Amino acid sequence: MNWIFLVSGGLFLVLAGLVGADYLSTSIITDGSFVLASSGQTDNGSYASRVMAADVSEITRSLTEGESLVSDLSVKGSGPILVSDYASGKFTQIPDSLACVFIRHIQGQEEESELYSMGILNKGSYTASRVVGPGLIGGLDVNGTGMMSFGSQKIGNDTLRSSEFVSGNMTIRDYVKYGGRL
Known about the structure:
The protein has one domain. The chain has 1 helix and 9 strands, in the order H-E-E-E-E-E-E-E-E-E. The chain has one helix spanning about 1-20, and strands spanning about 20-30, 35-40, 45-55, 55-65, 70-75, 80-90, 110-135, 135-155, 160-180. Strands 1, 2, 3, 4, 5, 6, 7, 8 and 9 form a 9-stranded antiparallel β-sheet that branches. The model has no long low-confidence stretch (mean pLDDT about 80).
């Protein structure tokens, strides 16, 4: 009887591994210190992050890899938090069939985009979400005291850049979407 459950459970795990996406999740609550690093790469781009914190802190991180690479990172702490985050993506733009003659578009040229954030918080919270797929989507939410530098850029037929630096007491909400339509 136990062999039937063992064989059917093993078969289920093998079949689920063949059709499912890779998933990684971590949750840490500590009154000491921690260092957490994660990275991933697909044909469409890459992602890397590092987080260090001391004192009472809580971190939740998830990383899913399938057609797109999806990352969610959340850190809350009453002590110092050091964080860095980088994502890059590629997107091949398909022009509209009714495009204007004056729009510069080279057929098949890939647009490359990047998102980054880094900083030191004395205390507070940092939340970042990134989707690296065809194109690049990212959200950043920071609340606390310290210094943060963040920005993004898209290089292709058109160029778009943004770079910000904030110090002191801060509340930051930043959302970026490169590739596709809103």
